[in-house]
Amino acid sequence: MNTLEEPVSETAEPPPRRPRSLVAALLVSLRPRQWTKNLLIFAGLLFTLDQRQDAGHVMRAVGAFVIFSLLSSCVYLINDVVNRERDRAHPKKRLRPIAAGELSAPAAVTAACILGAISLTAAFILSGRFGSIALIYFTMTVGYSFYFKHIVILDVLVLASGFVLRAIAGAVVIPVGISAWLILCTMMLALFLALSKRKAELLASLESGSTGSRRILTEYTGPMLDQMIVIVTSACLMSYALYTLESPAAYKHHYLMATIPFVLYGIFRYLYLAHRHDIGESPDAVLLEDRPTLVNLVLFGIATGLIVSHQLQRIIDAFNR
Questions:
Q1: Higher confidence at residue 305 or residue 313?
Q2: Within 13 Å, how many C-alpha atoms sit on residue 282's CB side?
Q3: Contact 7/289 with Cβ under 8 angstroms?
Q4: At a CB cut-off of 8 Å and minimum separation 6, what does 297 contact?
Q5: Residue 213: what pLDDT?
Q6: What's CA 316's distance to the chain center, in Å?
Q7: Which one, of 185, 203, 208, 221, lies nearest residue 274 by Cα?
Q8: Confidence class for position 135, pLDDT limits 50, 70, 90
Q9: pLDDT confidence of residue 123
Q10: Cβ neighbours of 287 (radius 10 Å)
Q11: Cis (ω within 30 of 0) for the bond into 248?
């Protein structure tokens, strides 16, 4: 039974609509739906519940999430300004406010400068190390908009590195130690999402008969991307399985292995949606619109929190008395 609630088709021709106001156009250009990617900031908090933490750590993690969301929106504005001419030839991206002429390039650049200045200043105020990571993330993603996205293989590696920097930033800002295994898992999962996105973009371009807006797609083939996806999927699952055995939370017990099925289901569900519902281009849509994926993520978070904080062991001990 299909439990996906009528995913929004990004290929269908949208109905005529009134032009957006300047404020609405700016808000849409900030892409708040994609702020879900910054939830990785909380990975350091979740996987270190066995260490001493307080409410201040939670507030710092929330602050880091807000800062990275503003910083990523700054990059989205820059990206849309740089690509506005190519976006106008794309069936979906032509509807973006800057490409559609609803938000002028000077206004977008001004907003990007303000957001960038505010977010980077706040990042260094929160923590010097966190600010340094935020600056690296900003520089790398802006570099992606201008240069890296045109280089085959390096384009997906840079995309994946952005996710890794989010996870590292979330650990640095608390601050707590973070397992190298968790960084590896994040990298493999991010590569999986990036390669799946490229595969969806390639299929969409072949269907429309044009790759004009994304020249890098001509460097990829379907079989090549399928092979890469198989490799990183296997590496992701194996690295997470090893993490559940080697992480500090697993030293006293191996209950963390019970979260492996959640990871398996999440990856397989994403592959299913990408192949059957053509939403591989929008990881944020999967998280926000697919109920099984959202439920799986919530259950994974609850289970991980109980295990890492050793609450599950206390529950089992109480039950056995």
A1: 305
A2: 20
A3: yes
A4: 266, 287
A5: 54
A6: 35
A7: 203
A8: very high
A9: 95
A10: 17
A11: no
